[in-house]
Amino acid sequence: MEKLSIGQMSKLNNISIQALRLYDELGILTPIEINEQTGYRYYDIKQSAKLDMINYMKATGMSLKDIKGVFDNHDLSKLTITLEKHLDTLDNQINDLKQQKKAIKKMIDSYNRYLNSPTDGMITLEYIPERKYYPYKSSINIYDYDLSMYENLLKNLKDDMLASNIPEIYYYNAGTTILEEDFKNDNIKSDEIFVFVDNELHDSNLKSIPTSEFVCIYCDAFDKEIAYIHRLKDYIKAHNFIINGHYICEVLCELPFLTSNKREMYLRLQVPVAFKKNI
Predict the structure, then answer these.
(1) Is 153 helix (H, G, I), strand (E, B) or coil?
(2) Cα–Cα distance between 266 and 174 in angstroms, integer?
(3) N or C: lower Cβ tally within 10 Å for the chain?
(4) Cβ 6 vs Cβ 20: under 8 Å
(5) Which residues is 128 bridged to in the sheet?
(6) Which residues are within 8 A (CB) of 145 and not within 5 positions of it... i.e. 6 or more apart?
(7) β-strand partners of 123
(8) Contact in structure between 183 and 246 (CB atoms under 8 Å)
(9) pLDDT (tens digit per residue) in 122-167
(10) Other CB atoms within 10 A of residue 176 CB
């Protein structure tokens, strides 16, 4: 039998000498001989088979502790259980990574929309496809309070989402609604705060905003909203549009530069409309 030095074994199997020493310390792979005078370790080339198995298990993400347990127990059923548990862990990690990817894309989209949005005060007519959202109903009129109450409502929304197992990825760019009749009657009242979600989410509490043309006005400050609501109504009346649904205040973007110690939000205030037809 040809003995291989630890250096030769390392080179042959493309593995570091430090790793071989660690495997020896852990009892995962021990040399066939250790010279008592020099302390040199020697291996048999046939031990490469075990090294291949160790490397393969490591490639699956198994820990050295789990790998040692497999070798010590000589029980394939326990190995299968260990691998199945590890597979579940990987599935959870993959899901977490998908959520992180979605969060990053959401932020990129939000900032790009801000960079390409009309300027503050501009009114537009926009076709917007159907959207789904997760609502939270409060017991107060949001417009009777300042931003401090809004922050409290956001925390209530978040708690409600988490209690309903709604992923935190959707807790981003919250909005508010005013019912169609209240909006028409100049009753500036909202007791609903929401976040938009995508079609992958399924929950019995979800609501939808139908596809429509929307009269929109862009707004760069929370305290301008009520004045801009009146501008929206004047525009709708001047163009003989028919109000065709609830008013929505959508946060297009929250800027990360909190210069005034409060949320820096860019809003798109919007009302679905229909056109009067001459018959």
Answers:
(1) helix
(2) 11
(3) C
(4) yes
(5) 212
(6) none
(7) 217
(8) yes
(9) 999 999 999 999 999 999 999 998 888 888 999 999 999 999 999 8
(10) 23
